[in-house]
Amino acid sequence: MELKEYFKIIGRYGKVFWGLVIITGLATFLFTKFQPKSYLASTTLTVNKSSSLRQSEVNYYLFDNYYNVQSSGLFSQIVVSWFGSPAVVKEIYDKAGVSIPNVSQKKLVKTFKAIREEPATINVSLSGTDKAETEKLINASAALMQEKTNELGRADKENVYDIVKFSPIVTDTTPNLWLNTLIGLLAGAILGAILALSVDYFKRD
After folding, report:
1. Which one of 6, 32, 72, 98 has the minimum C-beta count within 10 Å?
2. Using 50, 70 and 90 to split pLDDT, how confident is the model at 99?
3. Would the pTM of this model clear 0.85, i.e. be above it?
4. How far apart are CA 107 and CA 121, in angstroms?
């Protein structure tokens, strides 16, 4: 069957074809239109262990602070685990001055996504519907991690760590209304063509 014959069949069932195109396009438009604004905030934290010795102060090789780097990597795992604690997440909300959402603890700990990269870098991100609150939370998370680290440092003066925070970035991740509508129209056209051809096939049988 030639291509023009397929178009003839689709034209014969134009109401079915155009009906699906309009319905899917309109449904996609309305669904996207009424989606709340969404924002993604992210920052990078780097854990650094302070060295009590300098190479110039000793007569043996310090291996370019290799052991400090390894120690920082191990401590960064502890920092990542803090983001998975409901109590710590609550403290972040309190520090940011943002109301804690009325959700289960299981869902609360999913607020932040903390991914550790070797050797001691942590990429932290979270999504929200309020830009100002999302920015406050990402800043508060980094500040609280440093506070918790300082608390441990006061208890163990031999192992002192510092957390370096990169400037957070907040971007609008709200779905594109017109792009989604176009995708909906194309999906409707494909479904409409399949349905029209299917109806014609079964009618001939």
Report:
1. 6
2. very high
3. no
4. 25
